Structure formats: structure tokens, C-alpha cells
Amino acid sequence: MEKPKVLQILSMYHEQGQIVLREGAEVVRTDRYDIPHLCEVVKGVDGIVLRAPARITREVIDANPNLRVISGAGVGLDNIDVGYATAHGIPVLHAPSVNRVSTAEHAIALMLALGKSVVRLHGEMSRGNFASRSVIPTFEMKGKRAGLIGFGQIAREAAKRLRFGFEMDVIAWVRQEDQEKARIARELGVSLTTRIEDIFESGDYVSVHVPLTEQTRHFIDYRLLASMKPTAYFINTARGAVVNQTDLRAALQEGRLAGAGLDVFEPEPPSPDLPLLSLPNVIVTPHVGGDDRRMQLDHVDDRRPQCHSRAAGRDARIHCQSGSVGEQIGLAHDIRRKT
């Protein structure tokens, strides 16, 4: 039987997923993701698998009337026009659990780097300034308050580590409370609030863990950022556009908060002259929070979980409930099967 043809845009999170994909499909690989280029290379393929910051717009979908499936290689779907794909009968797949632990760890790493002044002290030590230890302050996390924006899988992984590993007081913002969220919060020792101002006004560390939607785009603005403690830190490992970056820069420059750790930007990649990149109280990383290289290839076959696919509502998403490497392998199998 002839293999389906799949357009792969950027790498998957784990190389074994790429191997599985190639075993059952003819793969067309591109590391370019500008829309005109994608409109050309998408022609003649049966499916697409992509990774942010690549985007699948209606123009890309229209360029191939025979497209049968689109798969994001990670958690978010804000880079795919799911509504337009659904209207054209094209299912959209993703891996909701693929990098929850890695992203939670990265958020905590940024908290530690900020509170312990790791980057500043490294810079001073690289210049031979050992005396900087008496000038640049550092703070322990124990007893501090971590405020989480959102209480999904990534936020819960972060809460677990912050509460039990660092003995922090953890509070999480949710739009609505329900019995399931309340139960999980009790198990983790987390307080819930539906008032987002509580997070910004009381948190020593405020960490963002919400998806990008029309409701969350730029919803973290100057009003909220300016209400933070002047000693507090802001962390974003979710999506850059959740925050108004101009407002964040202003709040940082005015000393409304002590600093920020950013792994995501609007747009991506950010312009080299983005002012946030050069602020002395900001630590930046290139959207690597979800990357996970810990598992060895020889563990893949032993830990390959069964992916259970199900349609979820009108958008025809398929959720794979499994671990990081396994989800990538499962997505590769799914996109082969769908094509």
C-alpha cells in the first residue's frame, strides 16, 4: 500500500516520534514556516504535523483541498486555525500532556534563577567580582507565595513541586471553581480564587499557565502588573500574547515588580531589538520550556503507552493521554492512521 505523504514543519519533541512517522509515511520536512512557503509545500500532502512557532492558517488549508489531518506536536492549538479546519472536515490532533512536567520545571527554574540572582551573579563572577556576593541579594523560596494563573495540568505539576518541594504557599486563579478543581486543590494544598487580582497583589512569584485564546490575549496588562509587590517576580512559560509586552516593559522599568522570567514572546521568534530582551531584570529563554530530552531511546519501547483517541466536541480534537515520549510516538501513529 502506498504510504501517505506528511508535511513535517520543524522537529517533534523527541526524535523517536520522527522515526515512527517516517516508518509509515513519506515525510516532507521543512524548517521554514512563513505562510507563502507553507502554501507551496503543503500541496500534495495528506497530513501536516507541526510545532510552534509554525502556524497553520486558512490560507495554508486552502492551498491543499485534499488535506486530511493536522497534528500539533505539543499542547497548544493556538497556532492552528482549528475552527476553519473543522469547517472543512479536517480533524486536528494534539498531545495535551506531552510536556507538562518539563514546562512546570522550567517555570520553577526561572523562579529560582530570578530569586537567587543566578544570571547577575554569573556575570559578576565571570568578570572576577567575587565581592558581588555581598552586594547582590538572593532569596529562598520557602515560605513565599507562588501565584499561578490557571490550574490546568502544567499549573498542577508546578503547584505540586512548589508546595511539597519548596514548602511555598500556593494560590491559583481559575475562572470558575468546580468540585474537581476543589478536590485537586485540596490534595495539593493549593488555595483557589476567581479574583485574578488576588494573584498579582499577593504573589511573590506570579507564573502564567493558561492557553492563548481570544479571552486571554493581552489580558495580563499594566493594571495587573502594576499591582504586584515591588519585590515580586513574573514568569511566563505559556504563550507570549497572553501578556501585553509593552505594559510588562513599562512595569519593569518603573520598578513595579522586581523582575521577569520569559520563555515565550509575541511574535516568535521575537525581534532582536525587542526591549524586553535587554532589560537587566529580565531572564529570557527561547521557548524551550516544553523540551524534554531526559528519556533514553532504549526506554521508548518499554514505556510506549496506549493512546486513546476520542473526538472532543465540534473541533474534532483527539487527545492522547500518556507520557511525553509516548505521546509523540502516539501522535506519529495517529497521523499515519488518519492519513
From TrEMBL:
<dbReference type="InterPro" id="IPR006140">
    <property type="entry name" value="D-isomer_DH_NAD-bd"/>
</dbReference>
<keyword id="KW-0520">NAD</keyword>
<keyword id="KW-0560">Oxidoreductase</keyword>
<dbReference type="GO" id="GO:0051287">
    <property type="term" value="F:NAD binding"/>
</dbReference>
<comment type="similarity">
    <text>Belongs to the D-isomer specific 2-hydroxyacid dehydrogenase family.</text>
</comment>
<protein>
    <submittedName>
        <fullName>Hydroxyacid dehydrogenase</fullName>
    </submittedName>
</protein>
<dbReference type="InterPro" id="IPR036291">
    <property type="entry name" value="NAD(P)-bd_dom_sf"/>
</dbReference>
<feature type="domain" description="D-isomer specific 2-hydroxyacid dehydrogenase NAD-binding">
    <location>
        <begin position="108"/>
        <end position="289"/>
    </location>
</feature>
<dbReference type="GO" id="GO:0016616">
    <property type="term" value="F:oxidoreductase activity, acting on the CH-OH group of donors, NAD or NADP as acceptor"/>
</dbReference>
<dbReference type="Pfam" id="PF02826">
    <property type="entry name" value="2-Hacid_dh_C"/>
</dbReference>
<dbReference type="InterPro" id="IPR029753">
    <property type="entry name" value="D-isomer_DH_CS"/>
</dbReference>
